[in-house]
Every structure is written in C-alpha cells, then in structure tokens.
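Sequence in, structure out.
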Amino acid sequence: MIKKHDPFPTRLKKHLDPFTRLDPIVHSRNQRRWEGPLDEVALSRYERDGFLWFEGFFSKERVEPFFDELREMAKDEKLMESDQIIRDPASGAIRSVFGMHELSENFDRLTRDPRILGMVRQLLGSEVYIHQSRINDKFGFEGSGFDWHSDFETWHAEDGMPRMRAVSASLMLTENTEFNGPLMLIPGSHHVFVPCVGETPDMNWQDSLKAQRLGVPDRKGLGWMADRGGIKAPKGPAGSLLLFECNTLHASNENMSPWPRSNLFFVYNSVDNTLEKPFAGTTERPEFLGNRKNTEALTMHDDFPELSNQGVKPLRA
C-alpha cells in the first residue's frame, strides 16, 4: 500500500501520468556555504542534462588496484556465498559486489576524494554519506544488461528515500566503448518523475538485482522522453568519471564484445535526506543496498598526488 501524502507515488495498480519533479536539481543555488569546484557552465549543464562526464578523471594506474581486490574477494568463500555478491543470470560469473566502501579501504578513500566530494556537496547543497556502493562487471560475451529505470524510483519505493537529493558516481575501471555495454542515459529525463505500474512483492531485491522488471517506465513514456532528449552513452578510457542525478533514466545493453566492462558505482545521499520506511510498503532492503546506520557526513581524504587530471571541467558526452 502506498503511503499517505507520498509526493512520488509509484508501483501502482493503474497508470499515472508522469509529472514535473518537485525538488531542485542543483540544491546549492543561493547557498554560499556550498560553493564548489563546478562553474556555472557545468552547473547549468547538469541542470539541463542530468549528468556530467569527466574523461580521464583519474589515471589508469589509480584504478588498476581495484581488479586485484576483486580477485581477492573471489577467493573469500564466505563473501561469495553472501547476498552482497550478485551473479550474472546467464553465465553465473560475478556481476556485482555491493557494500564496496565497507569491504575495501581503498574504495572508501576514493569516495572521499576532495574533488568528487566537493562537486557532490555543491550539487546537493549539504554534507553527504554513501547510500550504496558496488562494483559492476560485464565480462566479454557474457555481461547482461539492465532495462530503463530511474534509481530514485527504486530507492523511494523500496528504500524509503524521501526526496530527489542524491548523486550517483560511476568510475570506469576499463575502457567503456559502444561495443561493451556502456551506460546509456536520456538527457533531461530527470525533470520528470515517471510513476510505474506493478505492485512490489516483498524481497523484490533478490530478483531485481539480476533483472530489472519492476520500476520500468512504459514504452510510450520512454519514447516520448527519448524523442525530446535523445540518448547519450558516455564513452572513454579507464579512470573516466560520470556523475548523474538520481532521477535520470538510464539503462545498459549486453556486452556483445570480447572486452570486459567494469565500473565502480557509488551513491552520495544528502545527510538531510536519510531513509524512511519504504514507500512501496515492503520490508526494508538489506543495509548494503540502502544504508540506514552509517549516515555520518563523509570527510575528505586527500591522498592521491598522482592523479592525472587536477581540474574538474566536464566534457560533453
């Protein structure tokens, strides 16, 4: 059952038309305290498109150690048997490892990088914490895709995230090309909230992490938004960074190439936007999917002197 006074009703029995978002996109507007490294051009682009792309943000050498960590995790039998490991439904290979910021000290430091944290604080207009983190793998010829969805729709319905005040960061560990299933986004789609049809069964996460079936907008609505904004698939070398707004519609295709596609993914949520009860009326998802306990503001950790790109100027995708 949907909560009373839910500003973003979804997972409904009947169709409800999309409506204009109710929340700001750049939350720091007119707040001097949260001035940051992004200039007005970048902020306006984020407001317009719902994402920013930084090619070669980190050096390739900076991201390579994460592959060593992933290989070590694969040797941990207890971890491999836990719910934090999601296997590809087709091949059985590791698809995702959740809670990376708690499993890896290296990853935890990465989430506190001053340049990333400075941009995210500026966009959200507040201190932030990690709502969710994971590493996504798509092996050559094996990695399956994900259908179109808004992360906020899922986090609102199944985690109880009250408002659109979160930013996702995706860091490319391998080169992302048009052939190996890059993330696709619909520019401008974050301006509209799309209610979805289909009531959420309890423990839906056990299935949805393998294949997105609920929380998927209908084809008519997707076609309308794609006709207006087009579809972009940012591509670039390992170390590139994508920041995208929590309500931006995105998807990815299967990896049909022989080359792997691996990305780190971490979600920053405002400390003023902590989780409530799930708005879909279901049981709370596990902590590694929706962080409820460790919501203290992140502090910066500046230990990356070898970074290849000292600026924060985004590129056009």
